[in-house]
Amino acid sequence: MTEKTKLITPRLPRGFEDRTPGEIAAVGAMVEKIKQVYERYGFDPVETPLFEFTETLGKFLPDTDRPNAGVFSLQDDDEQWMSLRYDLTAPLARFFAENFETLPKPYRSYRQGYVFRNEKPGPGRFRQFMQFDADTVGAGGPEADAEMCMMMADVMDALGLAGKYVVRVNNRKVLDGVLEAAGVTTDAQKLTVLRAIDKLDKFGPEGVRLLLGAGRKDESGDFTKGAGLTDIQASIVLDYIDGKPPADNDGVAELAAMQSLFDAAGYGAEKIKIDPSVVRGLEYYTGPVFEIELTFKVQNEKGQDVVFGSVGGGGRYDGLVSRFRREPVPATGFSIGVSRLANALKLTGNLGAAEPAGPVVVLVMDKAETARYQAMVSELRQSGIRAEMFLGNTKNFGKQVAYADKRNSPAVIIEGSQEREQGILQIKDLVAGKQAAAAISDHAEWQAARPGQFEIQREDLVSAIQKLLSEQG
Prior knowledge:
Elements: H1 21-40, E1 44-45, E2 51-53, H2 54-57, E3 73-75, E4 81-84, H3 89-98, E5 107-116, E6 128-137, H4 142-158, E7 165-171, H5 172-181, H6 187-198, H7 200-212, E8 215-217, E9 223-225, H8 231-241, H9 250-265, E10 272-274, E11 288-299, E12 305-316, E13 331-337, H10 338-347, E14 360-362, H11 370-382, E15 387-389, H12 397-406, E16 411-414, H13 417-422, E17 424-429, H14 430-437, H15 443-449, E18 453-457, H16 461-472
Parallel strand pairs: 1-5, 7-10, 14-15, 14-16
Antiparallel strand pairs: 2-4, 3-4, 5-6, 6-13, 7-11, 8-9, 11-12, 12-13, 16-17, 17-18
Helix pairs in contact: 1-4, 4-9, 6-7, 7-8
C-alpha cells in the first residue's frame, strides 16, 4: 500500500449493530428456552429466505407505490422487484400458499430470524432486528387465539419473568363495532381514534377524551390534533374503554370464549387479561389482538420511571394468506422482539452468562516442536474439548497467556524443553489463577506461587482437562 492510498474508515451504517460472542451466547440461550415452549405446544420450525418478491409483501408495506419505501428493495435480472423481508409473517403466508397441498392443516410453525426496515433509525429503533414468531394457519376459532396467548405467558414464565408481565387481549371486531356506533366512517378518522385509545395508559381517560375531540396540548406546549369527534361520539368510545362494549358484537362473544379457555387452563388475570385499550395493526388484524407487556419499571432517557412496555404481540390476520388463494384461510400468531426482550432479561438479571467459555489454549514454547503441540490440540478436539494452538508471535510467553486470558480460556497447556524431557505438562487453570491472584498483592509472591498451575503426565492430558472443566462447571 502506498502512502497516498486512502484508508477506508471502518464504520457501520446507522440502524445496524455488531454482536459479540457474549451477546450471541446469551440471546442463543434465551431463544432455546422459547423454542422449547413452542415445541411443547406442538409447533415445528420452518425457515424462509431473507428476500421475497415485493408483491408478496404487498399492501402491508408502508407505501406500495414506492418499492423502496419502508423496505430495502432491488431488481433482479428479470427486472422483478425483490425486497428484504419486513416481517416473518408475510413470507409464511407465501410459503403456506405455495405448499398448500402438502402441508397439514392447521399448520403450526415457528420462525426466527432478522427482518429489515428501511426507516429512519433512532434510539431503540433499528433497521435490522431479530424476531421470533409462532403461527397457526388454517384454524378459525377463538381456541387458536387463546392458545397463542397461553403460549406467550408460558414463554415469559420460562424466561424467569413470572409476575413481571401481563398478556393483554382485545378484539378488532369490538373496536370496529365501537367506531361504527360512534359514526366514525373515514379511514383517517378511524386511525386517529384508535391511536387515541392506544394512549390510555400514557394519558389516562381525560387525555384520551382530548385526543378524541379537538386535540391535546402536552406540558411542553406541543399540540396534537384530535379526531374531531363530538361529545356524544367521544362518550361512546370512552364508555367502551370503561368496560361497556357494544351489544350483539361477534368480537365480544369471541373474547368471552377465550376467557372461558383461560379460566379452564388456570391462567388468571395476573397473566392474561381482556383489555379494551389494546390496539394493533389497523389494516392487518381481523379479530383477536394481543400483546405481552412487561410491567416492571425502568428509567427513560429523561430519568423518569416508566413501565418497560411491550416486547411482542400479534393477533388474527385472516386476510393475509387469502391474497394468494381464492378460498378464505384463517390464521393467527404472534411475534416476539428478540432484542427488546433480551434487554428486559438483562435488566432483570435473567439473560444468562455475559461471556461464554473460550477454548483451552496450547502454548507454543518451542517453534521447532509445533507438531507436538498440534498433536495435543487434536487429542483434545477428538475428545470433544474446545481447543486451539497459539498461532501468534510465540517469542513472548506472557503475551500467549494474555491472549488466552482475553479469549476467556479455562486453561493453558505448557510444555517447554524441561517438561518434554520429563514427559510432563504444566496446566495453568486460568479461572482458579484469577481467584487466587486476587488475594496476592506482591508480584514476586505471585510468581513464586504460580496460582492455579499444576503438573500432569503427558498421557493424562485429556482426562486432566476433562476433570478441570468439570470442576469449573
